[in-house]
Fold:
Amino acid sequence: MMVYLLDDEPDMLSLLADIVKDMELEARCFSKAKQLFRQVNRFEPHSIMVLDLHMPEMDGIEVMRQLASTANPPALILISGHDAGVLHSAEKLGRAQNLNILASLDKPIPLEKFKKLVSKHFNSVGDLTFSTIASGVDEHNPQELIYALENDQMLLHYQPQVDVQSGKLTGCEALIRWQHPEKGLIYPDQFIPVAEHHGWMGLLTNLVISHAVEQEQIWKELGFHLPISVNISAENITTLSLPEQMSELLAGKKLNPTMLTLEVTESALMGELVTSLDILTRLRLKGIGLSIDDFGTGYSSLSQLHKIPFSELKIDRSFVASMLEDEEACAIVKTCIMLGHELNMQVVAEGVESRQHADLLRQLGCDIAQGYLYSKPVPALELTRMMQADRQWSSHITTATQPSRE
Structure:
């Protein structure tokens, strides 16, 4: 596992390199950005870069701009001796450029926090590394992907969503995986860009919805009525026939439309707003839930929230992860919760990974949480066993102890 260190202070480079090596990771040190880009033609998969914003010749903002146009850029930990406002602005800019910003740290760097960030990142990608990178997956191979889409190689994992106040299961989010017959389990960051580039997101989303509805029917027959959330693409929300397709699919399985929520990212709403408003409104008329995903990181305005009949607001994980030590992030979380409730929406916090995060969300009045504190995304069978093993955890979504015969 590689950590790239970019800082013009030799003592800082030496200190961070020693910490990284003590963690049994590899460190590469650079005192100038141009030196880094001359020597590194391709970044190691799932690597980290510690980036000092105040650099000679080429500053950290320029580095982020170049990284944004680079294939497979590293995740970033931004550091600076400037005021917190500069760091926050740089962090927001990086996310707007689709870079993975792990955190921003003031100098002098809190070393224990730095070690936790590095460890957490590599732990979170550990399974991915062994199942995809080590097996040599070519993320630019469209032929393999279209074959997988057409030959039932896609499956879903489900991440539980939990009531913040009671701790009981309230639903789950369906997340796509590619079960390659030779290369093992492939995660979406390896194939979603390919699907987007070739215009296959509509096909991929339809597969996810179909699998989710089938699983909903299986759970219903087992006596569990567990709502499922599914992400849909910008292509879906400009397809005028989507409401009828969804209604027919649910009716064919004899499922209540309220058991399904479609998640739409803020950026997906930037296209044909009138057409999207038409489609999303008709979906709500048919009883299907609508969630605005990753709220606070995209381009939506209050007028869009007012126009589109969302039933749920999902706070982006970046704000949730930082809210314990970052007053601005905490204020954003609090504001999102208040805004969602004022607009009669249920509020969901993503990326909840500690009891402290859950306690603060409870104090702020958040409704639902999901994250590794409760469970990572798991196969349907594993989630079924979890519900069967702990009826108290799932008691409020259980309607029968025996399978339904409907």
Notes: The CA atoms of residues 255 and 345 lie 23 Å apart. The longest helix spans residues 201-221. Confidence is low (pLDDT under 50) at residues 126-140, 398-406. The chain has two domains: 2-124, 138-397.
